[in-house]
């Protein structure tokens, strides 16, 4: 898939673990894991807003991986 999730970068910048972030944004750790591994088919805007400020903070486009 050409769109890549950069959630690991967000976690490292905030010095926070996945389970802590999941609790803060109000989703399950399983759903956060799905998002983190790039297997998610969709993300709620409210979750997206809670994780990052701009789409580029969490998403990257790499056409070579299509």
Produce a short descriptive summary.
This protein is mainly alpha-helical and 66 residues long. The chain has a single domain (3-65), classed as lambda repressor-like DNA-binding domains (434 Repressor (Amino-terminal Domain), Orthogonal Bundle), CATH 1.10.260.
Please explain how this structure is put together:
The protein has 66 residues and is mostly helical. The chain has one domain (3-65): lambda repressor-like DNA-binding domains (434 Repressor (Amino-terminal Domain)). It has 5 helices and 2 strands; from the N terminus they run βαααααβ. The longest helix has 8 residues, at 7-14. The chain is globular, with a radius of gyration of 11 Å.
What topology emerges from the helices and strands here?
Layout (H helix, E strand, L loop, with lengths): L2 E3 L1 H8 L3 H8 L3 H8 L8 H7 L3 H4 E3 L5
Antiparallel strand pairs: 1-2
Output the CATH class name: Mainly Alpha
Structural class: mainly alpha
Poorly predicted runs of 5 or more residues: none
CATH superfamily: lambda repressor-like DNA-binding domains
* SSE sequence, one letter per element: EHHHHHE
Count of separate structural domains = 1
Share in helix: 40-55%
CATH topology-level fold name: 434 Repressor (Amino-terminal Domain)
Properties at a glance:
mainly alpha, 5 helices, single chain, 434 Repressor (Amino-terminal Domain), 66 residues, globular, 2 strands
């Amino acid at each position: 898939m050409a769109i890549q999730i950069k959630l690991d970068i967000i976690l490292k910048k905030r010095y926070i673990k996945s389970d802590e972030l999941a609790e803060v944004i109000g989703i399950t750790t399983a759903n956060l894991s799905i998002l983190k591994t790039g297997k998610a088919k969709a993300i709620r805007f409210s979750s997206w807003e809670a994780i990052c400020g701009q789409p580029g903070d969490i998403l990257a486009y790499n056409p070579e991986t299509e």
